[in-house]
Amino acid sequence: MDQRGTLITSDDTVSSTTVTRKRRVIQLECKVCGAAAYSSYVGVLTCAPCKMFFKRNAEIKQKPLKCDFGGNCEINIFNRHNCSYCRLKKCFASGMQTELFRPSRPIQKRTNRKKKEIVAPTTEKSNALVMLTSRNQPQLLPTLTLLRSDTSTLSIDQWGLLSNLIHCYDEHGGFLVAERFTSEQNGLPLKARYKYGSLNALYSSLMTGSQLLFEKNADFIALSSHDRSHLIYGRLKYLGGIGACFILSHVKLFDNPAFYSASEAVYGSPAMEAGKATCNLIDSDVVFVKLGLSILAFSTFDYTFYTNTETRNLENITAVLRIQDMYIELAWRYLVYKYGHSRAVISFSNLIRCIFSGNKSTVEAIERKQYTDMVDAMIKQAKQTLSLND
């Protein structure tokens, strides 16, 4: 086995004069999250983080786990830390067994209550995994199966809206693009890394992903063609910039001195400094980040500049502001529900600072032709996708 989580086997073909050895490389992946795996644990091939997670959380008498999204979260290497309930559920589904734990001291006979709670939710509740709703109540939101809590201040309609908004933006696609870029660059000689062509392709790909916030949003589609075109033109550059910062902060590329210096040479020091500040202000809660981007998509602010073209305004600014107000209230109620009032205030304050920082980064970068060309191409593609005319 090599250091990359691969198993190397060999087939020997023996003749009277030579021995031919064929090497086969088998990639080993964690059955829970898909990361590189090096060994099996309690009967299942798993990575070290998932091994330690199962060991900590599968024991009896641990603090109850909860899932905010009905126990149906996708678990992979990028989001495995988001939902402990669904991660533990996948551990059991992959075949991990508490009966195979090696006890360090004499213990009483364990039962299999927790595994039964995950596999068959109609059985008695386990104290390891606790859902947020009573089994006697009907399923309210089949789109995301978000379950109500007695302490929630969100209405059924707001839970539905939350479900729809967080599915508008696919961050995992951006994570994969950034991870692939990092892997490709690390495989190149030092002098060949982070050239303009590869950097521009990365930023363009990450920024283009933000148009999904418009494509899949029913409130946006309900607006007039004029107002949709206006929002695409005015908002996409901000959404693309902050969305790219969100992805880059997650994969830690801004912490790479070579990547940062190369980006600085293309887009300028002021733009990159503001971009890094934006990264530092992005919330750790992915759901709130998506809500923040949705709010920004319907904002009406813009930097002031002078051109020879005629100024265009929204036809129905009241409708746009109503949508923005609705999203702001939803984000606030979500934060209060999940974290409490104090954390909600801090998160919203950081969101406002993040938007201002992202605006500053955009204003600085717009002075560079490379950036304006990229933004123009992104807007043109978005309008073609949404069948909008200028």
TrEMBL record:
Keywords, ordered alphabetically: DNA-binding, Metal-binding, Nucleus, Receptor, Transcription, Transcription regulation, Zinc, Zinc-finger
Keyword Zinc-finger annotated: yes
One Gene Ontology term from the biological process aspect of the record: cell differentiation
Residues passing through the membrane, by range: none
GO MF annotation terms: nuclear receptor activity; RNA polymerase II cis-regulatory region sequence-specific DNA binding; zinc ion binding
Keyword match Ribosomal protein: no
UniProt xrefs under InterPro entries: Nuclear_hormone_rcpt_NR1 (IPR050234), Znf_hrmn_rcpt (IPR001628), Znf_NHR/GATA (IPR013088)
Location of the Nuclear receptor domain: 27-103
Name of the molecule in the record: Nuclear receptor domain-containing protein
The organism of origin for this protein: Rotaria magnacalcarata
